[in-house]
UniProtKB/TrEMBL annotation:
<keyword id="KW-0547">Nucleotide-binding</keyword>
<dbReference type="GO" id="GO:0016301">
    <property type="term" value="F:kinase activity"/>
</dbReference>
<dbReference type="InterPro" id="IPR050482">
    <property type="entry name" value="Sensor_HK_TwoCompSys"/>
</dbReference>
<keyword id="KW-1133">Transmembrane helix</keyword>
<feature type="domain" description="Histidine kinase">
    <location>
        <begin position="338"/>
        <end position="423"/>
    </location>
</feature>
<feature type="transmembrane region" description="Helical">
    <location>
        <begin position="75"/>
        <end position="92"/>
    </location>
</feature>
<dbReference type="InterPro" id="IPR036890">
    <property type="entry name" value="HATPase_C_sf"/>
</dbReference>
<keyword id="KW-0472">Membrane</keyword>
<keyword id="KW-0597">Phosphoprotein</keyword>
<feature type="compositionally biased region" description="Basic and acidic residues">
    <location>
        <begin position="402"/>
        <end position="411"/>
    </location>
</feature>
<feature type="transmembrane region" description="Helical">
    <location>
        <begin position="165"/>
        <end position="183"/>
    </location>
</feature>
<feature type="region of interest" description="Disordered">
    <location>
        <begin position="402"/>
        <end position="435"/>
    </location>
</feature>
<dbReference type="InterPro" id="IPR011712">
    <property type="entry name" value="Sig_transdc_His_kin_sub3_dim/P"/>
</dbReference>
<dbReference type="Pfam" id="PF07730">
    <property type="entry name" value="HisKA_3"/>
</dbReference>
<keyword id="KW-0067">ATP-binding</keyword>
<feature type="transmembrane region" description="Helical">
    <location>
        <begin position="24"/>
        <end position="49"/>
    </location>
</feature>
<keyword id="KW-0808">Transferase</keyword>
């Protein structure tokens, strides 16, 4: 069984070719917008402090900041370091536009949190860049404080310098924390999708395994039922046909009786096979049981007929019921019938017995079916494949019962199956007397 991965050490897979193409497209879009913004700012002539470099140099700084975004998912930490360094360098050169470089820096911090494979490195790399940006912000605020010409028309309750410092700190704090938070959120979301995908794969594998197990169990059940039906009736037919062949020239009436038994047994076998196939082909009802329109499986009521059919094969079978007869579940009744059928078939085929006993006992908490004979003590399972006893044990195990099979001390063979079949509780016995 495949070991469950340690999700605490999960690493995000490398980006797909499609995602890499999307990164290139995003880089081109940001580069186009940034170049346009630089052109507009330069045309307006708005510069925070000092004078801006030439338009060509500003466009070069814009391209240098933006192009690394094409690799933001493949090498997120490298892109973050490059963008962070170029951002501060461009600010030192006092390029005109500050908005689009901030967007590029946001994407770099976000990508490091969302795609870096080593989480500790991703965390400390982002913290280092954020600390460096706040240090640069502090330098800028100091330059702003010592520069002449503060806004002369400030009318708020705070000093313009204090207000500028607070504004810049709050704005940049929200900016960097948002990039950090949404990057981690994207990484956790990807890990959650990976977990769901794995759970779905495990569920599909489990369902396929259960389906295969159900198919194998159903094949075993069908094989068991076919063996029980065919083996018994074919054995009876074989014995009767052999008897008819031996006496055909001497006693045509006896031979005709044996052949009639063969004919009747063949009809019975075909009827049971049709019933079995009908159950297999039937659509289940709302409770999962086969359609009641098909022929019912044999049960306790057919045991006397089974004993009579076995007598026609030359085995003197004595049938008896003991205890208080009562209805039992259909599955238990069919299992009892099949066990009796298989045990009698083995007696006829292998034991050389002259007589057998078929007993049904209705116990307080179960049903007991017993077949014994006076043969050589090999009436259980002398077939090479051993389908007889194995099939009986499987049937009994389905109901949680017990099977006893083996030679008897005084000769012969005994098969006894105990099947749980509790007596239904009556309402009268459950009531307490009212004083």
């Amino acid at each position: 069984m495949e070991q469950e991965p340690d999700w605490g050490r999960w690493q995000r897979p490398a980006p797909t070719p499609r995602q890499q193409r999307h990164d290139v497209a995003l880089m081109l879009l940001v580069l186009l917008v940034a170049a346009g913004m630089t052109l507009l700012i330069t045309s307006i002539g708005t510069v925070a402090i000092g004078s801006a470099p030439s338009l060509t140099e500003q466009l070069a700084w814009t391209a240098g900041l933006t192009v690394p975004l094409a690799l933001r998912r493949r090498f997120p930490l490298v892109v973050l370091a490059v963008v962070g360094a170029l951002f501060i360098a461009a600010q030192m050169r006092q390029i005109g536009d500050g908005f689009m470089p901030s967007v590029v820096l946001f994407l770099a911090i976000y990508s490091a949190g969302a795609w870096a494979r080593h989480r500790a490195r991703a965390r400390w790399a982002r913290v280092a860049v954020i600390v460096a940006m706040f240090a640069w912000l502090g330098i800028g605020l100091v330059r702003y404080a010592v520069a002449p010409g503060h806004p002369p028309n400030a009318a708020g309750p705070l000093d313009p310098l204090v207000a500028t410092v607070l504004y810049q700190i709050v704005f940049n704090l929200m900016f960097f924390l948002s990039a950090y938070f949404f990057g981690d959120l994207a990484w956790r979301s990807a890990r959650g999708r990976a977990e769901l995908t794995r759970r779905a794969e495990q569920l599909r594998a489990s369902q396929e395994q259960n389906a295969r197990g159900a198919i194998v169990a159903e094949r075993v059940r069908i094989a068991r039922d076919l063996h029980d039906v065919v083996a018994h009736h074919v054995s009876v037919m074989g014995i009767q046909a052999s008897a008819a062949r031996r006496v055909l020239d001497r006693d045509r009436e006896l031979a005709g009786s044996a052949l009639r038994t063969v004919e009747d047994t063949a009809r019975t076998a075909i009827s049971e096979l049709r019933g079995l196939l009908g159950v297999l082909r039937a659509e289940p009802d709302a409770e999962g049981r086969p359609d009641a329109g098909h022929q019912a499986s044999p049960g306790l009521a057919q045991l006397p007929a089974l004993a009579a059919a076995t007598r026609s094969a030359g085995l003197d079978v004595h049938y008896g019921e003991y205890g208080d007869p009562r209805p039992v579940p259909d599955s238990v009744a069919m299992t009892a019938y099949r066990i009796a059928q298989e045990a009698l078939t083995n007696v006829v085929k292998h034991s050389g017995a002259r007589s057998a006993q078929l007993r049904v006992r209705f116990l307080e908490a179960g049903l007991e079916i017993e077949v014994s004979d006076d043969g050589r003590g090999c009436g259980g399972d002398s077939t090479p494949a051993g389908f007889g006893l194995r099939g009986m044990r499987e049937r009994v195990a389905v109901h949680g019962g017990e099977l006893e099979a083996g030679p008897r001390r005084d000769g012969g063979f005994l098969v006894r199956a105990s099947l749980p079949a509790p007596r239904p509780a009556t309402s009268d016995s459950a009531e307490l007397p009212v004083p």
